[in-house]
Design a protein that fits this description.
Strand content: 5-15%
Number of helices: 7
Number of strands: 9
Structural class: alpha+beta
Strand order of the largest sheet: 4-5-6-7-9-8
Order of helices and strands: EEEHHEEEHEEEHHHH
Radius of gyration: 72 Å
Length: 408
Amino acid sequence: MTEITHTTESNEIKCPHCETLFTIDEARYADIVQQVRTIEFKTELHERLAAAEQAKNAEIALAVSNATQEALKVTTTKDAEIQQLKSDLRSVATDQELAVAKAVSATEKNLNEAKSKLEVQAAEQRAKDVALAQSHAKELAMKDELIDRYKEMKAKLSVKMLGETLEQHCEVEFNRMRSLAFPNAEFGKDNDASAGTKGDYVFRDYSDDHVEYASIMFEMKNESDTTASKKKNTDFLAKLDKDRNDKGCEYAVLVSMLEEDSDLFTGITDVSHLYPKMFVVRPQFFLAIIALLRNAALDTIVVKTELEHAKKQNIDITDFESELDGFKSAFGRNYQLAKDKFDAAIKEIDNAILRLQKVKGELLGSENHLRLANDKATALTVKKLTKGNPTMAAKFAELNAPEQPDAA
């Protein structure tokens, strides 16, 4: 390898073969030094890599040897365990076969017993099914008969008599229970058409003190199967609500046979979401709705009795106040009339006094004139009258001259 000598004055390189010294500048010297260092680094690196590779191969060989020995140990142990397991498995299989045989025998016995019980139950169920089928057949026959009778009844009804027949049905049903359930109640046709319309029937019930505590306006609607234009229950609710308000009823009930196939109108249907305190019922629930509403109102009898009593007291007080107001009004009117007449009389008196005072003034003025006239009359003499009037003076002189006797 080339020997490199570095001095402060110059850079010298000595050839290893001929031992000749070469002098180079600083830049080239640094470049050569770098090359030498790189070669030495690579050489050392390869040596170290080779050593590491040898160490790794030795470790791998040792690990493989150790793993092989361990695998042989494990394989030997596993084979022993497998043999033991096979022996245990053969023993368990024998025990399972015995257990299965016993279980099959017991199961077959239980199965036979269950079959016997099932046969008995099946016979009982068949008997129940037969009885139930017969019962259903009877119920269906009764329903079919009821439907046939209903259809026959509707077929016989005339168009004009449909509603009347339903009204008559409800009236008869009510009258059958009137004396038992509604002894104080009133139920009759609404004949008051002063408000423009009228309902079909009005129900009112009273307490023993004759205080009304329940009232219902009824409307009955029926329709023939052959009617061309089918009406709906909601078509009649507005009029029913108006009739309820006009007649002062608390509840309104539409007894209807309309919309027979509707799932909504099957019994008692509350339609108070459309109109307050209103129900739509089928005819068979006519008495039921009366009983429900009446019983619901029974709790209010005490309150309504007290309210009616208070109302009567208020009416008495109101009547007294009205009579007192009437008396005060009549008295005030008479007082006003008397006062007006008194004021008119006072006014007339004042006017008369003014007129009398005026007359008095005029009379006083006349008296003064009369006095002046009297004074003037008193002061009047013939001399004053004839002053400046010789003719009149001569006349008065002649009158005042004594008469001369006539010459004989």
